[in-house]
Design brief:
The chain is an alpha+beta fold. It is built from 19 helices and nine strands. Helix 2 (13-31) packs across helix 3 (43-54), helix 5 runs antiparallel to helix 19 and helix 7 (156-183) runs parallel beside helix 18 (509-518).
Length: 551
């Protein structure tokens, strides 16, 4: 049985891989269990790691640090890539409000921590560790420890209190979201959370004498409202309009625009009819037997990063591109829209013309199954470089850095959003991205639990631990429940976006994984990525300021 002892107990690269893999497998298996329909999912990997560390399993410290760091980097970078395409639209549509609410969570938790110092008599450095653990923010802990060392004080206290409260922070956010969701009956959707750039379909009756005889191009120049004319009905026939099509009294025009522009366009065209064209069950091919509406998948690298208008599809093939689906969002197909791999372009025209367009754009699903690993690895390198850049603030002797988590997630967002403009193929299939995120998060949690498990139960039994646990529990639970109520009830925010925002404010990827498993769509992930960088940055600065000013 020497071989078994070698792969489980003798520190080596093989032993590290075996131990981490076993912890991940056991934790993921336990995560499939449900109690009253609720499961903590991947969180069980963390607890499996704690038990393994407590039982005496050890791996090489360098291997442990590498696997933990690489897992976190892989998770946050893949998350940034996934939400990048919809990030800017989401930020314009309410990201500033989400960020304000998230910063409110940060401030409220900080005030509670300072109040706990006065009420419990806990030393300030220890309470800073409690705050870092309750908000699962290890970069803030590192900054606080460095500041203590520069002041000539013992830096081990915050690390110990952080280790005790860290599990509370991980699980507490999930429990708080459960409580908040039940109190507010899981308010999943409100109109306030519609993406600003999302396409909206409407039809208008042309009855404004001011535009009789004018071409669609001339009408579009009269105002800055962006729209695409998909079909025009005249004398019982359907016409595929272009910029030279003249509008006549009694025409009926089908338009793709943004919802906020509908009232503006109604003033120009005359009257909007009541037909609901945004229902999912509309069969567009039954509107007219000569015209076909088809979604074409962009899979050719040559199309990636090009503006839609530069393809001249209307002039070359006689087709209209009405909208583009990206990351589950319908975008208006304006000429200046930058196309990217994985976009689904809705094209209206004759079957023969659509076949030619499909051939030019690729429309081959199998071409998307092979991810562009060059972009992934280059993005990770750039993200780590960004995370190492020091930011100096007046009065602070220690610079602030975005770190292993902040740098890669920001770079992932930037490449996901703007990579196609530089002809970088940042597309990954949903399953491939989910695989990267799951592997990274599982590695990170397994190593985190294994490292914390060594002295975890002994520390929990110490006299000060109970005070730390109660304080950490309240610092985790209270801000999440209170801010979620404010966001949903007062600001009418979508609960999925609210949950993602709170996970980002608490720097809690495990709670985000739980939110994604319970709530539909990518709104939670987009909100998480929207607020995470600035909240993480704020917590790092706050930890240092508290130590320097009050310690």
């Amino acid at each position: 049985m020497d071989w078994l002892n070698e792969i489980l107990l003798s520190p080596s690269a093989i032993q590290a891989v075996v131990v981490i893999s076993l912890i991940c497998a056991i934790g993921m298996a336990l995560g499939k269990m449900h109690v009253r329909g609720v499961s903590l999912g991947v969180t069980f990997v963390f607890f499996a790691g704690i038990l393994a560390g407590w039982a005496g399993l050890r791996i090489d410290p360098d291997m442990l640090n590498y696997a933990e760091s690489f897992g976190l980097i892989l998770f946050v970078y893949a998350l940034g890539l996934q939400v990048g395409p919809g990030f800017m639209s989401s930020f314009r549509a309410g990201g500033a409000q989400l960020t304000g609410l998230a910063l409110g969570t940060v401030v409220l938790g900080t005030i509670m921590a300072l109040a706990a110092v006065a009420l419990t008599g806990t030393s300030l450095p220890d309470m800073v560790g409690v705050l870092c653990g309750a908000t699962t923010n290890t970069p803030a802990l590192g900054a606080a420890q460095q500041t203590l060392k520069q002041l000539g004080q013992n830096a081990s206290g915050p690390a110990l209190s952080c280790a005790v409260t860290y599990p509370i922070g991980l699980v507490g956010v999930i429990l708080a979201l459960m409580v908040a969701g039940r109190l507010m009956h899981l308010k999943r959707y409100t109109t306030a959370d519609k993406i600003e750039d999302e396409a909206f379909i409407a039809s208008f009756s042309i009855c404004n004498p001011a535009i009789f005889g004018k071409t669609l191009h001339e009408v579009s120049q009269l105002n800055e409202t962006k729209f695409v004319a998909s079909r025009l009905w005249r004398d019982g026939k359907v016409i595929l309009p272009d910029g030279d099509t003249k509008l006549e009294n009694g025409d009926r025009l089908l338009v793709i625009t943004r919802k906020k522009s509908v009232d503006h366009l109604t003033l120009y065209f005359g009257r909007r009819d009541e037909t609901d064209w945004n229902k999912r069950n509309i069969d567009w091919n039954k509107i007219d037997s000569k015209l076909v509406s088809q979604r074409i998948l962009i899979t050719r690298r040559e199309i990636n990063g090009r503006h839609l208008g530069t393809l001249h599809l209307r002039n070359r093939y006689g087709v209209n591109v009405s909208r583009v689906q990206r990351s589950g969002i319908q975008l208006v197909a304006t000429p200046d829209l930058v196309l990217r791999m994985g976009d689904r372009v809705t094209v209206v025209g004759t079957p023969e013309a659509i076949d030619k367009v499909a051939s030019e754009m690729g429309n081959a699903v199998k071409n998307l199954d092979d991810p562009n690993l060059v972009t992934i690895f280059i993005g990770i390198v750039l993200g780590l470089a960004l995370g190492c850049i020091p930011f100096h603030f007046p009065g602070m002797s220690y610079p602030v850095k975005l770190g292993l988590a902040g740098g890669p997630i920001i770079m992932g967002i930037l490449i996901g959003a703007y990579g196609p403009r530089l002809h970088m193929v940042a597309y990954t299939t949903t399953s491939a991205n989910l695989m990267l995120r799951s592997v990274g998060l599982s590695m990170y949690l397994a190593c985190l639990g294994l490292d914390a498990g060594r002295d975890f139960f002994d520390t929990v039994m110490s006299p000060a631990a109970l005070t730390w646990l109660v304080s950490g529990f309240l610092i985790t639970i209270v801000p999440v429940i209170l801010i979620s109520a404010i966001a949903v009830k007062l600001y009418r925010r979508d609960f999925a976006a609210t949950a993602g925002m709170l996970c980002g404010a608490m720097a809690n990827p495990i709670a985000l994984d739980y939110a994604n498993s319970q709530l539909p769509g990518e709104k939670a992930s987009v909100a998480y990525a929207t607020v995470y960088p600035i909240c993480m940055f704020a917590r790092v600065i706050i930890a240092q300021v508290i130590i320097m000013c009050l310690a």
